[in-house]
Task: structure prediction
Amino acid sequence: MPDERDTPRHDGAGTSRLDEITWPVRTERLSLRPAVAADVDATWRIRRIDSVVQWLTAAPKDREEYRARFEDPGRLAKTLVVELDGEVIGDLMLAIEDAWAQAEVADRARGVQAELGWCIDPAYGGRGYATEAVRALVRLCFEDLGLRRLTANCFADNVSSWRLMERLGMRRELHTRRESLHRSGEWLDGLGYALLADEWRG
Result:
Protein backbone atom coordinates (compact mmCIF):
# COMPACT_ATOMS: atom_id res chain seq x y z
CA MET A 1 0.00 0.00 0.00
CA PRO A 2 2.42 2.69 -1.09
CA ASP A 3 1.23 6.17 -0.26
CA GLU A 4 3.54 9.07 -0.98
CA ARG A 5 0.98 11.87 -1.29
CA ASP A 6 2.98 14.12 1.02
CA THR A 7 6.35 13.61 -0.64
CA PRO A 8 7.74 16.69 -2.45
CA ARG A 9 7.93 16.11 -6.21
CA HIS A 10 8.60 17.92 -9.46
CA ASP A 11 6.01 20.48 -10.48
CA GLY A 12 4.52 18.47 -13.31
CA ALA A 13 1.41 18.89 -15.40
CA GLY A 14 -0.64 18.63 -12.25
CA THR A 15 -3.86 16.88 -11.54
CA SER A 16 -5.97 19.23 -13.64
CA ARG A 17 -5.42 16.65 -16.36
CA LEU A 18 -7.82 14.39 -14.49
CA ASP A 19 -10.52 16.70 -15.81
CA GLU A 20 -9.84 15.09 -19.19
CA ILE A 21 -11.29 11.80 -17.91
CA THR A 22 -14.96 10.89 -18.02
CA TRP A 23 -15.83 9.85 -14.47
CA PRO A 24 -16.58 7.46 -12.95
CA VAL A 25 -14.25 4.89 -14.51
CA ARG A 26 -15.88 1.48 -14.19
CA THR A 27 -14.31 -1.96 -14.07
CA GLU A 28 -16.05 -5.32 -13.91
CA ARG A 29 -16.91 -4.84 -10.23
CA LEU A 30 -15.64 -1.44 -9.16
CA SER A 31 -16.02 2.25 -9.80
CA LEU A 32 -13.22 4.85 -9.57
CA ARG A 33 -13.82 8.58 -9.20
CA PRO A 34 -12.01 11.67 -7.91
CA ALA A 35 -12.20 12.03 -4.15
CA VAL A 36 -14.22 14.86 -2.61
CA ALA A 37 -14.12 16.31 0.89
CA ALA A 38 -17.18 14.24 1.84
CA ASP A 39 -15.08 11.07 1.48
CA VAL A 40 -13.10 11.91 4.60
CA ASP A 41 -14.99 9.61 6.97
CA ALA A 42 -15.06 6.62 4.61
CA THR A 43 -11.31 6.83 3.98
CA TRP A 44 -10.49 7.57 7.64
CA ARG A 45 -12.32 4.39 8.65
CA ILE A 46 -9.89 2.39 6.48
CA ARG A 47 -6.73 4.36 7.20
CA ARG A 48 -7.00 3.96 10.95
CA ILE A 49 -6.85 0.12 10.75
CA ASP A 50 -3.55 -1.05 12.25
CA SER A 51 -2.62 -3.38 9.39
CA VAL A 52 -3.15 -0.51 6.95
CA VAL A 53 -1.60 2.43 8.78
CA GLN A 54 1.63 0.57 9.51
CA TRP A 55 2.66 1.10 5.87
CA LEU A 56 1.30 4.58 5.24
CA THR A 57 3.43 7.70 5.06
CA ALA A 58 1.59 9.36 7.93
CA ALA A 59 -0.56 8.21 10.84
CA PRO A 60 -2.76 11.13 11.94
CA LYS A 61 -3.62 10.89 15.63
CA ASP A 62 -7.32 11.66 15.16
CA ARG A 63 -10.03 12.38 12.62
CA GLU A 64 -9.52 16.15 12.71
CA GLU A 65 -5.83 15.87 11.92
CA TYR A 66 -6.65 13.40 9.15
CA ARG A 67 -9.39 15.66 7.77
CA ALA A 68 -6.98 18.59 7.50
CA ARG A 69 -4.55 16.43 5.53
CA PHE A 70 -7.22 14.79 3.37
CA GLU A 71 -8.87 18.08 2.42
CA ASP A 72 -5.63 19.80 1.48
CA PRO A 73 -6.34 20.84 -2.14
CA GLY A 74 -3.07 19.47 -3.51
CA ARG A 75 -3.57 16.11 -1.86
CA LEU A 76 -7.27 15.83 -2.62
CA ALA A 77 -6.65 16.60 -6.29
CA LYS A 78 -4.51 13.48 -6.74
CA THR A 79 -6.74 11.11 -4.78
CA LEU A 80 -9.31 8.76 -6.32
CA VAL A 81 -11.74 6.62 -4.36
CA VAL A 82 -12.60 3.02 -5.11
CA GLU A 83 -16.24 2.03 -4.70
CA LEU A 84 -17.92 -1.36 -4.64
CA ASP A 85 -21.70 -1.19 -4.99
CA GLY A 86 -21.57 2.45 -3.90
CA GLU A 87 -19.43 1.83 -0.81
CA VAL A 88 -15.90 3.26 -0.54
CA ILE A 89 -13.47 0.37 -0.05
CA GLY A 90 -10.22 2.22 -0.65
CA ASP A 91 -8.43 5.06 -2.35
CA LEU A 92 -5.76 5.50 -4.98
CA MET A 93 -3.08 8.11 -5.58
CA LEU A 94 -2.28 9.41 -9.05
CA ALA A 95 0.52 11.97 -8.83
CA ILE A 96 1.43 13.20 -12.30
CA GLU A 97 4.96 14.55 -12.40
CA ASP A 98 7.85 15.59 -14.59
CA ALA A 99 10.58 13.20 -15.63
CA TRP A 100 14.18 14.20 -14.99
CA ALA A 101 15.66 15.84 -18.06
CA GLN A 102 18.60 17.94 -19.11
CA ALA A 103 17.84 21.64 -19.32
CA GLU A 104 17.68 21.83 -23.11
CA VAL A 105 14.87 19.24 -23.34
CA ALA A 106 13.12 19.79 -20.02
CA ASP A 107 9.95 21.04 -21.69
CA ARG A 108 9.52 17.60 -23.30
CA ALA A 109 9.67 15.89 -19.90
CA ARG A 110 6.85 17.81 -18.22
CA GLY A 111 3.93 15.77 -16.94
CA VAL A 112 4.94 12.57 -18.72
CA GLN A 113 4.93 10.15 -15.80
CA ALA A 114 3.15 9.42 -12.54
CA GLU A 115 3.64 7.84 -9.17
CA LEU A 116 0.85 5.52 -8.06
CA GLY A 117 -0.32 4.57 -4.59
CA TRP A 118 -3.18 2.60 -3.08
CA CYS A 119 -4.94 1.82 0.16
CA ILE A 120 -7.64 -0.86 0.20
CA ASP A 121 -9.75 -1.99 3.15
CA PRO A 122 -8.30 -5.35 4.29
CA ALA A 123 -11.85 -6.60 4.85
CA TYR A 124 -12.03 -6.81 1.05
CA GLY A 125 -8.66 -8.52 0.66
CA GLY A 126 -8.12 -11.76 -1.20
CA ARG A 127 -10.79 -11.11 -3.82
CA GLY A 128 -8.72 -9.26 -6.40
CA TYR A 129 -10.25 -5.83 -5.80
CA ALA A 130 -6.91 -4.07 -5.30
CA THR A 131 -5.50 -5.60 -8.47
CA GLU A 132 -8.65 -4.69 -10.41
CA ALA A 133 -8.60 -1.10 -9.18
CA VAL A 134 -4.91 -0.47 -9.79
CA ARG A 135 -5.02 -2.21 -13.17
CA ALA A 136 -7.76 0.23 -14.18
CA LEU A 137 -5.62 3.11 -12.94
CA VAL A 138 -2.67 1.91 -15.02
CA ARG A 139 -4.86 1.67 -18.12
CA LEU A 140 -6.21 5.16 -17.47
CA CYS A 141 -2.66 6.53 -17.17
CA PHE A 142 -1.42 5.00 -20.40
CA GLU A 143 -4.52 5.13 -22.60
CA ASP A 144 -6.44 8.18 -21.44
CA LEU A 145 -3.66 10.43 -20.14
CA GLY A 146 -0.92 9.28 -22.53
CA LEU A 147 1.75 8.95 -19.84
CA ARG A 148 4.99 7.17 -20.67
CA ARG A 149 6.10 5.77 -17.29
CA LEU A 150 4.57 4.81 -13.94
CA THR A 151 6.31 4.18 -10.63
CA ALA A 152 5.33 2.85 -7.20
CA ASN A 153 7.31 2.39 -3.99
CA CYS A 154 6.87 0.52 -0.74
CA PHE A 155 8.65 -0.91 2.26
CA ALA A 156 10.12 -4.29 1.37
CA ASP A 157 8.22 -5.82 4.28
CA ASN A 158 4.93 -4.76 2.68
CA VAL A 159 4.72 -8.01 0.74
CA SER A 160 1.13 -7.66 -0.45
CA SER A 161 1.97 -4.33 -2.04
CA TRP A 162 5.00 -5.38 -4.06
CA ARG A 163 3.28 -8.59 -5.08
CA LEU A 164 0.48 -6.46 -6.50
CA MET A 165 3.04 -4.43 -8.45
CA GLU A 166 4.44 -7.62 -9.92
CA ARG A 167 0.96 -8.93 -10.82
CA LEU A 168 0.52 -5.75 -12.82
CA GLY A 169 3.74 -6.41 -14.72
CA MET A 170 5.79 -3.72 -13.02
CA ARG A 171 9.56 -4.18 -12.90
CA ARG A 172 11.55 -3.99 -9.69
CA GLU A 173 14.08 -1.24 -10.35
CA LEU A 174 15.27 -0.47 -6.85
CA HIS A 175 15.99 -2.33 -3.63
CA THR A 176 17.46 -0.12 -0.94
CA ARG A 177 19.00 -1.53 2.24
CA ARG A 178 17.77 -0.10 5.54
CA GLU A 179 17.20 3.23 3.82
CA SER A 180 13.71 4.09 5.10
CA LEU A 181 12.97 4.95 8.73
CA HIS A 182 9.69 3.44 9.91
CA ARG A 183 7.74 5.12 12.71
CA SER A 184 8.57 2.05 14.84
CA GLY A 185 12.13 3.36 14.91
CA GLU A 186 13.44 0.58 12.68
CA TRP A 187 15.33 1.23 9.43
CA LEU A 188 13.67 -0.86 6.71
CA ASP A 189 14.49 -1.86 3.16
CA GLY A 190 12.58 -0.14 0.37
CA LEU A 191 11.47 -1.31 -3.06
CA GLY A 192 10.79 0.69 -6.20
CA TYR A 193 8.88 -0.57 -9.24
CA ALA A 194 8.17 0.94 -12.66
CA LEU A 195 6.30 0.25 -15.87
CA LEU A 196 6.70 1.88 -19.28
CA ALA A 197 3.82 2.38 -21.68
CA ASP A 198 5.42 0.24 -24.37
CA GLU A 199 6.03 -2.57 -21.87
CA TRP A 200 2.36 -2.43 -20.83
CA ARG A 201 1.21 -2.57 -24.44
CA GLY A 202 3.51 -5.54 -25.04
